[in-house]
Amino acid sequence: MQQHFDKDSAHIDHPENDPAYQGLKVNRGIKAPPIINPYFKPRKRRRYTTDEYVAGILEGNVSLLSQAVTLIESTLASDRHMAQEIIEKCLPHSGNSMRIGITGVPGSGKSTSIDTFGMHLIKQGHKLAVLAIDPTSEVSGGSILGDKTRMEALSREKNAFIRPSPAGDSLGGVARKTRETIILCEAAGFDTIFVETVGVGQSETAVHSMVDFFLLIQLAGTGDELQGIKRGIMEMADGIIINKADGDNIDKAKLAASHFRNALQLFPATESGWEPKVLTYSGYYAIGIKDIFDMIDQYRHFTVDRGFFDLKRQRQAKWWMYETINDTLKNSFYEDERVKALQQEIEECILQDRITPFKGAQKLLDTYYQALRQDARK
Ligand code: GDP
């Protein structure tokens, strides 16, 4: 039908221009409810004393344990101070656990496996803490590891304590918080600690320096079996486990296992004398789980008998002391206002070839030392 677009007649021809038209009626609205619940009262968390926290943790009170971990993760100086006191008091009660690092690329089945491993241990009467170091949380602020929703069965168990990766400004900071959390978990009676991480970054070194046994999850059937995982990570592994050995994948998993065994032959002997083992399993169908924990037990006996177990822990403790010193010094340097004020100028001088990088570094360090002396005189 031909429409009339004649200016004068348009207002009449269009049905919506008819005053009697009721096609669209706007009702008087009701006021939108507030998006924040007006009855909501933020729950005031009772502050406990250091001794109350310690006593609660030693009794295995998970709620207090959890709150103490929050203090460790806090950015408030007063919280951190209190956390340090709690850690110190818990330290004599810690150490009685098997600390197991679990790594694997995303999709390798870490969460499925941890769920299954955890249920296996809990059925045997163990108490398990699952912690995580997630390097991506530095960027995203959130965490993908150690997430309860990924460990369905385990998250319902009262003998399992699951804590996602702390968010933090540096990997070193995040890792230190996890290490401190291990101490509290042990004091609370958790005899097995899993520290989960993704097998793609530097976080493995941090995890390796806080666990007794390092477990690497791998997959079969991805073409070149050794691809996607750094040689360094394989070298750290005390056990390599090939996941998804179920259904049609069993043969491929076995083949991958033999590839890994061959590859391991080329690595230098480990200091402890332990020969890393390669096993196949299915995290989803819970096949081969007992063998994995038999291997870990075997490792424990092997290294305890040779004195290596304690030696490794002592070295780790020393490593953490130096790590902490390095981190603290670095932060103190880069956060100093006087250093910050000069930094850009020195950088520009270097870019314009007016001074060498070494001279530039010396200038900044001198400024820092001078600032320290000034502060000391105050
Ligand atoms: P993550 O990213 O390493 O934590 O891996 P997930 O545990 O989320 O597993 C990734 C995918 O692999 C999921 O779809 C799982 O269902 C699947 N998966 C995990 N373990 C197994 C297994 O043992 N067998 C098979 N067939 N699939 C598995």
Automatic annotation (TrEMBL):
Residues 1-17 have a biased composition (Basic and acidic residues). Pfam families: MeaB. Residues 1-24 are annotated as: Disordered. It comes from the Bacteria. CDD domains: MMAA-like (cd03114). PANTHER family: METHYLMALONIC ACIDURIA TYPE A PROTEIN, MITOCHONDRIAL, METHYLMALONYL-COA MUTASE. Belongs to the SIMIBI class G3E GTPase family. ArgK/MeaB subfamily. This is Methylmalonyl Co-A mutase-associated GTPase MeaB. The gene is meaB.
